[in-house]
Amino acid sequence: MSSDTVVADTNRSVSGRGRGGGRWPRPSRPVSDLVSDFLSRDVLGVRVGVLVLILPVILAGIGMNLVSRQGWNHPPDSRYYLPMMSRDMGHSWADAVRTERGISPSWNLSPWYFADNDPTWQQVRLRFLYPVLSIPFIWLWGLSGGSMAIPVIGTVLFIWAIARVLQRLYGPGVAVIVTGAFSLTVPVNVYTWAGTDTLALGLAAVLVLNLPIERRIGKANLAWLGIVSVFIALTRQVGVLAPAMAGAGWLWVLVRERSWRNRWLGSLIVTAGTTFVMTVISMTAVNANTSGVVGRGQTTYFGILRQFVHYLKIVTEQATTYMWHTDRLLYALLIAAGISVLARFASDATAVFVGAVASTYVITAGVGFSDHMRYEMLMFPAAAVAAGGLVSLAIGAYLPKPVKETATEPASEAAGVRANGPAPEPATEPALAPARSPRFSPGVVTALGRTAPGRSLGLHLPRGDRWKPHVILSSAVLVVVVWISLAGSWGSTIAAPASPSLAAAQGSADYAVKPLAKPPAEQTLRILFDQATAMAHDNINLQGALDWAHVMRYQPIAPDEPGWSTRAKDGTALVNPNSMGQDQAMAEAYGRGLSLDSTIKSDTVKILSRQVSAYGEDVVFTVQDKSGKVHQGTATTMYPVWSSRDSATVTSLVFDTP
Q1: Of 176, 191, 226, the residue nearest 206 (C-alpha)
Q2: Positive or negative, the Cα torsion across 131, 133, 134, 135?
Q3: List of E strands, 452-512
Q4: Would the CA dihedral through 163, 169, 173, 179 be positive or negative?
Q5: Are 166 and 384 in contact (CB under 8 A)?
């Protein structure tokens, strides 16, 4: 009898005694081997060990934030999204606004925030994916808790997607280091709140995951690129993010390989096509002109370009200052991505990062402010891939090898399927031989692929070519989301003009908010002139006697004041204070325009005539400047609706001769 046979008999004998004696049977393999085997397996393309090291940290951080920050789980932007959720669930505008005020009483909100002529609402109303997807969770946990579910899922989606692409490119060690570092950054943790920030971040990561970075992709990847390009357009205005990344990759390979029909062409066509279609739909669907939010009142191409360059400098200074003082880990990661661009300039990862940075700058410079890296979050997935390249160059020799996704690319290649051109060429830089990682596979898809319906859906094909199920399921989700939104939150409230007071407060509508006090117009104008003078001297406040969202009519007196280039024949202009963002220079100029270059003496206001409605006053007034000159004008005020201690709001201020 051989030694192998003896060992086998011994094992069976010991196992039998264990059962007879009531003891646990000895494992056929050491526990450490079983644990190692488990951690080396893949779940949705990511090693279990990578997930074990990353997910508990990010989930613990999110949990602490959800418990500790309380009211800030619902930031100012949530005053739009929570009413949208209520509307999607069948509530009226009045109930939706009242419910949101009960959850976030610190944020001012009124039905005119959803007015048909408000440019901010015309942009926000297109972001109906997040409100509709939140409905099942609201059924479970109510509006306050349920509105947090999708943002948390978006953060987890971001972590999973970048971990998967980093593991494929550089190995699980780099995936743990870079993904773990991004999971500790302030924006990823803090902005997991009731908003679209992390959902857009997760979808952007899925875009990067399906791009042909150092590989060829199948039809399923192209389908996902198109699907995500549609969904992300319904989450946040991301501009040309997807085609910019794909276009940069295509251009890089074109220069490198001298072939325009390279492996990036398919992704470029899909992302550019879907982005163009969604842009046309959004421009057709909204009722108001939102160009003023980006162009800042500029009507010529040169003026818009000049404004863009101006804001390019502003957002760069804001972003770098914020990171230096608040989030140096994020600063280090982005610097690492920049160094990787120089060290690996010819790589696909560099191209994707350059494209993401360019498209992000278009967004942030268009908006006019950085807002603590909220808008720059869209480039984090591309930055992670670029930073991973530098980490791999620095310490890659000491880390495990990259993991080959055996269920996607090899299967497609074995079937002879090519979605983007001829056979692959070697990568620009030599890479370590990829290691194969076992994955959990219950075999359900394989079994369905043997059936007639499964074959019609392409389930018998290699994973990289199973595009039909993705398109069908995503189309069904899109139809449901659009149908619910059109019946709910898509509608607007009636237009809220600057005057008269009844129309400005939407007083003819059943959802108009009843005033809590009726301060006289002279008191309101005194407060406004004092506030405007303070604004002109670096004390920016767009609330108080002004409203952040309501349209305002006034007379600009200098070219640097908002609305100068869009003045009507009478010299007045309509401006929305929220379109100024965090541009301090523009807000100061606005204050100078309202206070006639800080010359108005607020204690000299006199009312000559007054028309009173249930919601405010329309008055003719006089006021003196510091030289003693008397200025006459008209003004419209709306009575306070949020607190009886608030001042009224001025929505129109026009001098006869400024």
Answers
A1: 226
A2: positive
A3: none
A4: negative
A5: yes
pLDDT in tens, 33-80: 777 788 888 888 899 999 999 999 899 989 888 888 877 899 999 999
What is each CA distance from 347 to 173, 205, 378, 385, in whole angstroms?
Answer: 20, 19, 21, 11
CA dist 420 and 423 (Å) reads 9
Q: Is the pLDDT of residue 561 over 70?
A: yes
Q: Is the pLDDT of residue 242 over 90?
A: yes
Rounded (10°) CA dihedral 609, 614, 615, 618 = -10
Q: Which long-range contacts (CB under 8 A, 24 or more apart) does 514-518 make?
A: 514/614, 514/641, 515/614, 515/615, 515/616, 515/638, 515/639, 515/640, 515/641, 516/639, 516/640, 516/641, 516/642, 516/643, 516/644, 516/646, 517/639, 517/640, 517/644, 517/645, 517/646, 518/639
Handedness of CA 240, 241, 246, 248 (dihedral sign): positive
Which range has highest mean pLDDT (10-14, 424-428, 581-585)? Answer: 581-585
Is residue 87 over pLDDT 70?
yes
pLDDT in tens, 420-479: 444 444 444 434 444 555 555 567 777 877 788 878 877 778 888 888 899 999 999 999
- The answer to whether 493 and 506 are in contact (CB under 8 A) is yes
Per residue in 278-330, pLDDT tens?
A: 999 988 887 655 444 455 555 566 767 777 787 888 889 989 999 999 999 99
pLDDT in the model for residue 9: 46
Nearest Cα neighbor of 168 from 462, 339, 463, 406 is 406
Contact between 177 and 54 (Cβ < 8 Å) = no
Report the C-alpha gap between 333 and 313 in whole angstroms: 21
Q: What residue has token string 């997991």?
A: 192
Q: What is the DSSP string of 209-228?
A: HHS-TTS---HHHHHHHHHH
Residue 296 near residue 586 (C-beta atoms within 8 A): yes
pLDDT in tens, 165-190: 999 999 999 999 999 999 999 999 99
> CA-to-CA distance for 50 and 161, rounded, in angstroms?
12
Q: Enumerate the β-bridge partners of residue 652.
A: 553, 636
Residue with structure tokens 């009519």? Answer: 553
Q: Read off the tokens for 645.
A: 């201690």
Q: How far apart are CA 633 and CA 276, in angstroms?
A: 47
Q: Which amino acid is at 68?
A: S
The stretches of 40-118 forming alpha helices (DSSP H) are 48-68, 78-88, 93-103
Looking at residue 410, its amino acid is P
Classify 574 in phi/psi space as left (phi over 0), alpha (psi -120 to 50) or beta.
beta
d(CA 532, CA 536): 6
Angstrom distance (rounded) from CA 579 to CA 368: 9
Give CA–CA dist 333/399, Å, rounded.
19
Kindly state the tokens that stand for 439. 């994955």
Tell me phi and psi for residue 414, to 5 degrees.
Answer: -65, -30
The number of beta carbons lying within 10 Å of the beta carbon of residue 186 is 16
